[in-house]
Amino acid sequence: MKLIILDRDGVINEDSDDYIKSPAEWHPIPGSLEAIAQLSRTGWRVFVASNQSGIGRGLFTYQDLFDIHALMNQRIAELGGRLEGISFAPEHPDQASEMRKPRPGMLLDIARRAKLSLEGVPFVGDSLSDIQAAQAAGARPILVRSGKGRRTESGPGLEGVPIYDDLAAYVAECLARPAQA
């Protein structure tokens, strides 16, 4: 069984500079939920690792976040998939813990819970902090152009990082060549 870790905002759902604060504001990126379902159905363990500083900023509550995640899980389940777990860092960036990306804490915690090494495990993100967290945790960073990915792509720190249009494009290639996942 293979492991994959995904960022949420900008990878699974549309991102917003105003934050995703409620289920009504949560809109999946076309093809992302289907891609997660395909991964699940082919034996992948799918986890999410997401900074959610909107909680620390007082923009939404834990219950709001749990409601968003319940909707996301429901929509994925309707397609025959599942998320094995969701990790999030709720703190304000000024009070960041080891869990907040670009630090590797969330990814290392997922590896511990999954009882697997992160060596070669893809972490799909749309920001430089996602790439840096993957590198710091020993995972394999993958950048998507959705969300903030196009902005990220034009910046530094991406040497050797594969880039795809979106999660669906990455998963299609992943499943077409499972040995190279």
Reconstruct the topology from this structure.
Blueprint: E1 2-6, H1 32-41, E2 44-51, H2 53-56, H3 62-78, E3 85-89, H4 105-114, E4 122-125, H5 128-137, E5 140-144, H6 149-153, E6 163-164, H7 167-176
Parallel strand pairs: 1-2, 1-4, 2-3, 4-5, 5-6
Helix pairs in contact: 1-3, 1-7
Task: Write structural notes for this entry.
The protein has 181 residues and is an alpha/beta fold. It contains 7 helices and 6 strands; from the N terminus they run E-H-E-H-H-E-H-E-H-E-H-E-H. A 6-stranded parallel β-sheet has the order 3-2-1-4-5-6, with helices on both faces. Strand 5, helix 6 (149-153) and strand 6 (163-164) form a beta-alpha-beta unit. Helix 1 (32-41) crosses helix 3 and helix 1 (32-41) runs parallel beside helix 7.
Brief summary of the model shown:
With 181 residues, this protein is of the alpha/beta class. The chain has helices at 32-41, 53-56, 62-78, 105-114, 128-137, 149-153, 167-176; strands at residues 2-6, 44-51, 85-89, 122-125, 140-144, 163-164. Helix 1 (32-41) packs across helix 3.
For the biggest sheet, the summary is: 6 strands, parallel
Rg, alpha carbons: 15 Å
The helix fraction, in percent, is: 25-40%
Percent strand: 15-25%
Can you tell me the residue ranges where pLDDT is under 50 for at least 5 consecutive residues?
A: none
Q: Give the strand order, joined by hyphens, for the main sheet.
A: 3-2-1-4-5-6
Helix count, DSSP H or I runs of 4 or more residues:
7
Distance between the termini: 12 Å
Overall pLDDT level = 95
Number of E-type strands: 6
Secondary-structure element pattern, one letter each: EHEHHEHEHEHEH
Q: What sort of overall outline do the alpha carbons produce when their principal axes are compared?
A: globular
Going by helix content, strand content and strand pairing, the class is alpha/beta
